[in-house]
Design goal:
heterodimer; A: mainly beta; 6-stranded mixed β-sheet; B: mainly beta; 11 strands; 0% helix
């Protein structure tokens, strides 16, 4: 089993739709969780950190479920500009901040 | 502007050649990382460094080497021992353990 797993997609949704992605992780000692957005042929950019209490930033909401070992990202009112690959990452409890990334979920928002 | 600068943006390597990718940050971050990304795949850790003059192998270090002589700089050398070097190379940095990592714009390496 991979340490971090994501559904590769693509998720094809119309503008205005609500879409959700999950990301499962195998290391129960993981301490930090993040969602990144990566556009085609570009670097990943931090979208948001995921806290135990959840995190909301505008149309984006991230949740952490420790019992089931997954994090989620909800995007409301999808825009064409949301089309990208979304990577999740989590860092363990070791002596350094080693982030383990999933392979990403591709989102395509169409008119 | 504060950030992470990678150069060059594109790089071509001949057979048997060593090439060095540059990564500089002015964010005053202690930790720096090198990742490799192949098409349709996630990021794989090559090397990381938590402090100056110290670095550790990641998951795919074979055929690569690094140095960390200055806090701001973490260059990656792709040696001739790396038989499949074509990939997108990303450098990242983070302030401290538990913080998110921030990425440079990447270097695309191809073999001639």
């Amino acid at each position: 089993r991979k340490e971090v797993e994501q559904d590769p997609g693509p998720f094809n949704v119309p503008e205005g739709a609500t879409v959700a992605f999950n990301c499962t992780y195998s290391n129960s000692a993981s301490q930090s969780f993040f969602w990144y957005r990566q556009d085609c042929r570009k670097e990943p950019k931090l979208l948001m950190s995921v806290y135990s209490s959840g995190n909301e930033d505008g149309r984006f909401t991230a949740q952490l479920n420790r019992a089931s070992q997954y994090i989620s990202l909800l995007i409301r009112d999808s825009k064409l500009s949301d089309s990208a690959t979304y990577l999740c990452g989590n860092a363990g409890a070791g002596g350094y901040n080693k982030l383990i990334f999933g392979a990403g979920t591709r989102l395509a928002v169409h008119p | 502007d504060g950030g992470i600068t990678q150069s060059p943006k594109y790089l071509f390597r001949k057979e048997g050649q060593n090439v060095t990718l540059s990564c500089e940050q002015n964010l005053n971050h202690d930790a720096m990382y090198w990742y490799r990304q192949d098409p349709g795949q996630g990021l794989r850790l090559i090397y990381y460094s938590q402090i100056v003059n110290d670095f550790q192998k990641g998951d795919i270090a074979e055929g690569y080497s690094v140095s960390r002589e200055k806090k701001e700089s973490f260059p990656l050398t792709v040696t001739s021992a790396q038989k499949n070097p074509t990939a997108f190379y990303l450098c990242a940095s983070s302030p401290k353990r538990g913080d998110p990592q921030y990425f440079g714009a990447g270097t695309r390496l191809s073999v001639l």
